[in-house]
Amino acid sequence: PTPSPKPAAGQPRYGGILNFSHSGDPISYDPVQETGVQSMAPVIPSYSGLVQHSPTEPAKVIGDLAEKWDLSPDGMSYTFHLFKNVKWHDGAPFTSEDARFSLETVRQPPRGVVSPKKEWLKPIDKVEAPDRDTLKVTLGYLSASFLHNLGDGRMVVVPKHVFEAKGNMRRDVVGTGPYRFKAHAAGVSFSVAKNPDYFVKGRPYLDGITWFFIQDAATRFAALRTGRVHMTPANAYGLRPSQSEIVRKELSDKIATYRFPGFVYMAFWMPHNKAPWNDVRVRRAVDLVLDRPKVIDVAVEGVADVGGFLPPGAWSVPQADLMKMPGYRQPKDADIAEAKRLMAEAGYAQGFKSTITSRNRAPTDRSAIAVKDQLAQIGIDFSLKLFEEATTFDVLYKRAFDTAVMTNSGGFDDPDQFLGLYVAGLPRNFSDFSDEIVAKRYEEQARTMDAAKRKEIVLDIQRRMFELIPASVLFWYVFELGVWKDVKDFTPGIGLYNNMKYQDIWLAK
């Protein structure tokens, strides 16, 4: 891997413990089965992937365990040449068989293992380990996003010998990354220590990292202000807009703030195989009534992006067009009237009762409250069921809910990362949305290498989804985090999960 450039102001120094605030305990340590930032943020620094997104050029994919790779002339085969003499944290040697096993486990998980990321590896036809230091991946079709999906920070390589012995990695952290698991005090903290055998020479600089679990937003902010933590999380539990303003006005000499899109969206999920949500008229009525800017005001102090099924940007419906569409346009009078007509046509003129499942902390619970209040306008009487993070995901994966307000995410701005969340049968397709036309067009865009042609297909898919309402997207997060200026060579990654190994960060004092 290419190290980050050294700062002009001074030479990096070794030592010190970097302290984070964090939202809570990992649900489990398993990087195959977990995708949420609460679980993944403390675990990723212990692992390596085959490749990764560059810390300094996020659109570029560079090596990680792979020192280099060759692409066949037809674009259908990748041959990865792996670093030699890499060790797992338990001392066992890393080989290409571990990399082969990891890809196959995500692609075709064993019984009892949930694999939320398997759609990313769908282009793969065959994975081979011809020798100890070489991995060959043959694709079944050309894929524009394959290498970038492989570089997502959550697509790590796990130790075959540990996974096979335990059946998963839920209670074990054994990687090849810059930091080794040290301790997890439930409800208190999670800590890692420097890996002296890390295969990148001279890294990491830090002696270790500790994440302190602080659920209350005000207490997290106090921990940053007083210097108990060096950094807030780079997610929804970072700085609230009002807190960022305080930092900029009162603490700008000590603390830097960063604002960036996280490629995470909040959505209202309606199961398509359960009445009344299996009636598209009801789903459309819901989508028409929702006032996204007001949800944003309630949930995240007005700082978020209104958007559709893809993050605002290169692949999404242009913002100017989106804001003229039913459900997004202002004022809401015409949309509410149409929603009432659709409810009556579907046989629910008087509304009905239902429940919303959600996470029991801001901003998710605030989003659920906003949805509950707004949908009362068309007679839907919701009660709230609020759970801890682990229970919420368990309920969602088991589809044991009437409706839900919950986040979903991708690692970077590519249609496969987000449209793939609506593929039938996948764990994070919380609404169990299925449509033959969308599925066919999704496969078509995934195989289209011409970016302009691919965008045309992607726009067509979005138009179809706006008709069928697989979910109602409420907003796309804009994250802010605070970092003490003693923390050097920190660069926010793209999305939540990239550039999270912290091997290049150092503390000035």
Topology record:
Layout: E1 17-22, H1 37-43, E2 51-53, E3 61-63, E4 66-71, E5 77-82, H2 96-107, E6 124-131, E7 134-139, H3 146-150, H4 160-166, E8 179-185, E9 189-194, E10 208-213, H5 217-225, H6 241-250, E11 255-269, H7 280-289, H8 292-300, E12 304-305, H9 319-322, H10 333-345, E13 352-359, H11 364-375, E14 380-387, H12 389-397, E15 403-409, H13 415-419, H14 436-446, H15 451-468, E16 472-484, E17 487-488, E18 506-507
Task: Characterise the protein shown here.
Helices cover 28% and strands 22% of the residues. It has 509 residues and is of the alpha+beta class. A six-stranded mixed β-sheet has the order 12-16-11-15-13-14. A four-stranded mixed β-sheet has the order 1-10-9-8. A four-stranded antiparallel β-sheet has the order 4-5-7-6, covered by helices on one side. α7 (280-289) runs antiparallel to α10 (333-345), α8 (292-300) packs antiparallel against α11 and α14 (436-446) runs antiparallel to α15 (451-468). The longest helix is centred in the last third of the chain and has 18 residues, at 451-468. The radius of gyration is 23 Å and the shape is globular. The protein starts with 16 loop residues before the first strand and ends with a strand. The model is unreliable at 1-8 (pLDDT under 50).
